[in-house]
C-alpha cells in the first residue's frame, strides 16, 4: 500500500493525500510536480526512475488506511537535472 508521504523531498512543499500535484517513482520517492518536472527533469535523484502522478486514495479508504505523517527531506536539496549538451 502506498505510504502517501506528506511533502516534497526537494522543497518540503506540503502534499496532502488528495493533492493532484504529487509525483512518485516506483520506490515512492515523493516530489511536487514543479520539482519533478522543472528541477529534476522527470528523473528521480534517488533511483534514476521516472515519475508518475500519485494516485488519490478515496476518502473512505483514507480513513481506514491513513496517509503517512513522516516527512522526508533531502538535506542537501535537489540538484538541477543534468541537461544534455
UniProtKB/TrEMBL annotation:
InterPro entries: DUF1272 (IPR010696). It holds the Pfam family DUF1272. It comes from the Bacteria. This is DUF1272 domain-containing protein.
